[in-house]
């Protein structure tokens, strides 16, 4: 089963008078969606009671939960104190995931703008391993850490780098953000073959089992020479990439990814558009 959902809460959710993320699972289910990525990107600011309630509503409404960890995590900071704090933020996020019934947390690894790339990648992988050991001791061993492919050239997060990092530990599984791949590659995803090449790289490096239920982000994206500039909505067709190409690969490969839409303001509505595109293609093939 391919699942679709938003990254956070759409503007319409609030315009309709809703105020709490506890209401999101039922709202999404009514729309016809079945995934939700709760946002801790500006900090882990949710208590156990609220997280439990969101998790209960998600289970009741068959919504697959994931959590996006804070943007300011930097596993390759040249400052040891910041690296230690980054590990702590991930543990905090995994704790919330446990309360919420989420099995995956999405993590931005950080930046290598001030350090050597090789050192940054090796240090990040080592620290992720340390986090997973600590998570085991805290009863969080069932939560997967999903380092994200990032869109800016100075970030630790090219497709090759994320694959290399995930090869170091089976409990690291990539978040494949196709907008970021497109932006980092200066508009590199323009055909079914381009998307299939990405999936083949993952399968050849990590194995088909780890790719079968891949965690993905999708939206249109504007980019500059430095990579990602801004995410756009599905109707902003002057920007790529095109979801139809990915949908064809998903169907051909018989994989069941979670597709989280990161469109600006309309992420739930656009997630539904992606789901309708996919369902229409399934019926036509």
Automatic annotation (TrEMBL):
Q: Name one Pfam family in it.
A: AP_endonuc_2
Q: Which residues form the Xylose isomerase-like TIM barrel domain?
A: 26-266
Q: List the SUPFAM superfamilies hit by this protein, alphabetically.
A: Xylose isomerase-like
Would you say which domain of life the source belongs to? Bacteria
- List keywords of the entry alphabetically: Endonuclease, Hydrolase, Nuclease
- Which Gene Ontology terms describe the biological processes this protein takes part in? base-excision repair
Q: Name one GO molecular function term.
A: DNA binding
Keyword Transmembrane annotated:
no
Write down what this protein is called: Endonuclease IV
